[in-house]
Amino acid sequence: AMLALLARRAPPSCAATRAWTAVAQCAGTGRARSRGFATEAAAQTSTTAAPEGAGGAGVGGLVAAACRTVFSVAVAGATAVVVENTLNDLVLWNICKSHAMPIIDTHPRLQLSLGAPFKSEAWWNSSVTAKGRGNLVSCIFLLDGARASADVQVVMVRKPGATKGVLAAYVPNLFYNLVMPGAYKVVRMEAILPHEREAGLPGRVNLLPEVVASPEGQAGAS
After folding, report:
1. Measuring CA to CA, which residue among 98, 100, 95 is closest to residue 173?
2. Which of 47, 53, 89, 142 could form a disulfide with 121 if both were Cys (CB 3.0 to 4.6 A apart)?
3. 2 closest CA partner among 23, 30, 33
4. Would you call 45 helix, strand, or coil by DSSP?
């Protein structure tokens, strides 16, 4: 810059001035080229680094998408299991009631202790337990009478051979209970009635009809 300033102040006819002017021009050109080279190098560096950053972001995006997919599938599977278990309990509760209510409505001990008519509580206030892939079911529900209430327990077993087949281990119990509700047989039904024991304590009462042996059977047994 100083060389260019001196060249402009000196007379144009002076040979030294022309020399200084040429030197100043060469120096300015060299600086401009140096600045241009630095700019191009920085641009090339940025261009080279950009694909590497984009590749890293792409891999991270794929991993995040895979994690979201796995989480969504896990949540959907857990929700399906919960819904299937809830619906299965509801179906089993209805099967228990269908077996128990005809006996309850005509049972003299229940009528005397609780008072007719009878009404069972909702299924969400009941307890349903299934064991052995649904072959053994226990259902406890609250029975309300005109004067008192009592807990009724119904135990059912599935008839042998009702769930045979290659796919029996993979088909949900809900499917069998919906298709074959009559495959269960009641083996025990009891009620905890008030004032059935001494000092007014509650006691268990068998609600299933007692099998009375016929005279011919008794004679054959003797």
Report:
1. 95
2. 142
3. 23
4. helix
Q: How far apart are CA 187 and CA 139, in angstroms?
A: 12
Give the global pTM.
Answer: 0.61
Neighbours of 211 (CB within 10 A): 6
Determine the Cα–Cα distance for residues 173 and 135; give it in Å rounded to an integer.
9
Please check whether residue 157 is in contact with residue 184, taking contact to mean a CB–CB distance below 8 angstroms. yes
Q: Fill in the DSSP letter of residue 165.
A: S
pLDDT tens-digit readout, 104-133 = 988 888 888 888 888 888 888 899 998 888
For 208-211, which contacts have Cβ atoms below 8 Å and span 24 or more sequence positions?
208/103, 209/103
Token pair belonging to 171: 């088909």
Instruction: Work out the end-to-end distance of the chain between its first and last CA atoms, rounded to an integer number of angstroms.
Output: 137
